[in-house]
């Protein structure tokens, strides 16, 4: 299984962008209000720093993925602890993303469709895609869906320009302050932080040592698109209303009206949502199956898909409502634990120890 740099770019970009737009705008706006654009700037800079660390870590052992180089750098004992921490992240975020996917569709377009039916279809799709061709199939899908997602976002933003009211972005800083702006940056930073998955994807590149620029471009474009989209959403529907809605970005599209007859552009945002979630879940399915197989010494990693799929589906049914599936996980694990530990702390630890070992050998 070999990937091109462009395929890695589209995978990371799609993973970062779609979920960030839909799931983090409301919690970020609750903290930063109309200064959410400053929070997004901080988030973008933070993600570039995280990506810098992550790509440097992969260059220590370009032919190895996270499962292997963690043990190479830290030793078998500590390395396996690090692997377990990442496995916890992957095995918990996947059911949550699946449930969030269902909740958005249930709220927006399918209120009477059983949630099990929607999630079962998506699990079947990602399982088939991952089993049939591994990460290569997912990468090829991302090459097709990625440009479509960017095009849909562009069309939505262009169509929303007439509804923008710059007054909704004022005053700058006075109503929020540094602490609130920083707090508002945490949710988008955590969702844009999927550059850490590059540590599992890098060794599949034809030229692993030349993959870093694609990761930078992916997080850079995703961060910029999120900045523009979120700022326009706040400027369109206002900070007060944005904090009370589950999905403000979707609500912005409902206000679009062009030439008196072009309205109801919700399908554009649904395309963005479904496509981005499919790519994200498929990547996670591959990482879980492949990573678990490496960790446990199982040669046929594809066989694990049929065990992981029902586990993901079962855990996705546990949350009782939208709040449990969205806010609780985001605020109680993803931001306070996954962001500082999995996305910042452990990559820094791996980089520091790896560099020290290289210096000693030299």
Q: What would the principal axes of the Cα set say about the shape?
A: globular
User: Which value, in Å, is the CA radius of gyration?
Assistant: 20 Å
Number of strands: 2
pLDDT averaged residue by residue: 89
Classification by helices and strands: mainly alpha
Write the layout of secondary structure elements.
Blueprint: H1 5-23, H2 25-32, H3 36-60, H4 66-74, H5 76-108, H6 115-160, H7 178-192, H8 198-201, H9 212-237, H10 239-242, H11 248-254, E1 257-258, E2 262-263, H12 266-296, H13 305-316, H14 322-361
Helix pairs in contact: 1-6, 1-7, 1-9, 1-12, 2-7, 3-7, 3-9, 3-14, 4-5, 5-6, 5-12, 5-13, 5-14, 6-9, 6-12, 6-13, 7-14, 9-11
How would you describe this protein?
The protein is an all-alpha fold and 362 residues long. It is 77% helix and 1% strand. It has 14 helices and two strands; from the N terminus they run αααααααααααββααα. The chain has helices at residues 5-23, 25-32, 36-60, 66-74, 76-108, 115-160, 178-192, 198-201, 212-237, 239-242, 248-254, 266-296, 305-316, 322-361, and strands spanning 257-258, 262-263. A two-stranded antiparallel ribbon has the order 1-2. Helix 3 packs across helix 7 (178-192), helix 5 (76-108) crosses helix 6 (115-160) and helix 9 (212-237) packs across helix 11. The protein starts with a helix and ends with a helix. The mean pLDDT is 89.
How is this structure best summarized?
The protein is mainly α and 362 residues long. It has helices at 5-23, 25-32, 36-60, 66-74, 76-108, 115-160, 178-192, 198-201, 212-237, 239-242, 248-254, 266-296, 305-316, 322-361, and strands at 257-258, 262-263.
């Amino acid at each position: 299984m070999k990937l091109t740099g462009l395929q890695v770019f589209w995978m990371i970009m799609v993973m970062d962008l779609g979920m960030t737009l839909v799931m983090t705008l409301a919690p970020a706006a609750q903290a930063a209000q109309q200064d959410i654009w400053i929070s997004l700037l901080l988030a973008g800079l933070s993600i570039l720093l995280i990506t810098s660390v992550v790509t440097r870590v992969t260059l220590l052992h370009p032919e190895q993925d996270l499962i292997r180089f963690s043990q190479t750098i830290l030793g078998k004992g500590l390395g396996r602890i690090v692997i377990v921490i990442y496995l916890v992240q992957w095995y918990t975020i996947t059911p949550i993303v699946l449930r969030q996917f269902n909740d958005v569709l249930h709220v927006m377009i399918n209120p009477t469709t059983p949630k099990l039916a929607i999630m079962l279809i998506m699990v079947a799709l990602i399982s088939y895609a991952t089993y049939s061709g591994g990460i290569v199939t997912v990468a090829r899908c991302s090459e097709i869906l990625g440009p479509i997602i960017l095009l849909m976002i562009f069309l939505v933003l262009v169509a929303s320009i007439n509804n923008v009211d710059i007054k909704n972005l004022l005053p700058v800083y006075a109503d929020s302050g540094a602490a609130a702006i920083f707090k508002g940056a945490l949710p988008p930073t955590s969702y844009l932080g999927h550059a850490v998955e590059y540590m599992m994807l890098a060794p599949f590149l034809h030229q692993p040592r030349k993959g870093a620029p694609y990761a930078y471009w992916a997080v850079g474009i995703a961060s910029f698109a999120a900045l523009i989209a979120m700022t326009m959403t706040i400027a369109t529907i206002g900070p007060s209303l944005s904090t009370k809605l589950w999905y403000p970005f979707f609500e912005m599209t409902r206000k679009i009206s062009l030439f008196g007859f072009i309205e109801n552009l919700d399908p554009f945002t649904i395309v963005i949502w479904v496509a981005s979630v499919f790519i994200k879940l498929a990547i996670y399915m591959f990482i879980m199956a492949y990573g678990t197989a490496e960790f446990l010494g199982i040669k046929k990693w594809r066989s694990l898909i049929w065990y992981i799929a029902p586990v993901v589906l079962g855990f996705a049914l546990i949350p009782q409502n939208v709040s449990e599936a969205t806010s609780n996980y985001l605020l109680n694990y993803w931001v306070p634990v996954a962001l500082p530990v999995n996305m910042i702390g452990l990559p820094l630890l791996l980089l520091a120890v790896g560099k020290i070992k290289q210096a000693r050998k030299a």
